Amino acid sequence: MRLADYTDYTLRVLMYCATHGDRLVTVGEIAEQHRLSRNHLTKIVTDLGRQGLLETTRGRGGGLRLLKKPREIRIGDVVRAAETDFRLVECFDADTSRCTLTASCRMKSLFKAALLAYFKELDAKTLADIVAPAAAPGRSARLRRQRVPS
């Protein structure tokens, strides 16, 4: 299973906003930071605004920021909203499945259990869990040199 680019970029936008929570950020700034299309990010930001995750302000001095605290935004909810298809195998959709093994196959239940476990993990984490805290001024160089244990 692989996340769509749209979901990846959605998470990047939220992470960037969480990291810079002390100020408004712009779509152009995020696009430049991640080397992504500004137009593509604008669509993502619009969707996040409709979902109530981002506040967007247009015009001069405008920008965007999180509407919720990072610890209130579950990663599983973000992924569910951004992804369009969780059919890991054809038989997940009874309307379109043409598999002739369905009656005797146990693969569907295996992948369904795996998908549930996947979302259990994602639901256990919030945006705060995946964003490194901002370093105190003067400490950033030393922190960059430190290795993070895995």
Explain what this protein looks like in three dimensions.
The protein is mostly helical. Helix content is 47%, strand content 5%. It contains 7 helices and 2 strands; from the N terminus they run H-H-H-E-E-H-H-H-H. Strands 1-2 form a two-stranded antiparallel sheet. A hairpin with a 5-residue loop joins strand 1 and strand 2. Helix 1 packs across helix 3. The protein is elongated, with a radius of gyration of 19 Å. The protein starts with a helix and ends in a 5-residue tail after the last helix.
Could you write a compact summary of the structure shown?
Helix content is 47%, strand content 5%. The chain has 150 residues and is mainly α.
